[in-house]
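User: Can you predict the 3D structure of Putative non-heme bromoperoxidase BpoC? Sequence below.
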Amino acid sequence: MTWTTRPRSKFGDLAAIDAGEGPLVVLLHGVGLRAEAWGGQIEALVAAGYRVVCPDMLGHGESAFAEPNRVESYVAPITSLLQEPAVLIGHSMGALIAAHIAASGNRYVKGVAALNAIYKRSDAARQSVLSRAQALDAQRSNDASVTLHRWFADDISAERDACAQWLEAVNPRAYKAAYTVFAESDGPTEKQLAKITCPAMFLTGADEPNSTPAMSQQMASLAPKGRAEFIPDAAHMMPMTHAAEVNATLLPFVQECLT
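Assistant: Sure. Here are the predicted structure tokens for Putative non-heme bromoperoxidase BpoC:
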């Protein structure tokens, strides 16, 4: 699969890929990436009869940067997108944003899928991610090699190359801001999860060391209509590296929520 740049539409401060016609599915990417990270899902969803909107996170891709400093700063512009019934699908920090919106009781959210979502990190994991956030340089591009190794180990692939380009191109101030918000969050709270009354899927890779299967199971147990699913042999970048398997899990869920 190629990860070529796609045209954007404007939604306030956000630039987004807007493809297809039908019930709405909104895809939210993670820190340092851009809307094209969902390239493995866009065509599958469009072919299944959905309109797919994939916004660039604030300060990423072609979206404006407005000095966001908390999760709610990223939630607000996504909420503005929701003017009709929709399923929210988020990856990593995108999953955090999606869960916050679903927990708010937004009447348009008919289902939420949180991919590779974090929940109550261990003390060691929390300190590690906070240290990474503090080490980021807000003035110049950061070395992507450590992140790429964490995501892909030593594997060479088109997915790794695409992520390398996106990480090197992202606004360093926006990257540090988003990573700091992500690092300082511990995922949705128990109270928030209890307020997600729509169907909620918590999907992660069986080999994911940071957004672990145990985390997905815990979140699913706290959401009234929650379920946990796992992609075998997959880790953090599974929407890209295991697109077919992810799609096979997501498509029936989306259909369930929007019919």
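The radius of gyration is 16 Å. Strands lie at 9-11, 14-19, 24-28, 51-55, 86-91, 109-115, 200-205, 226-231.
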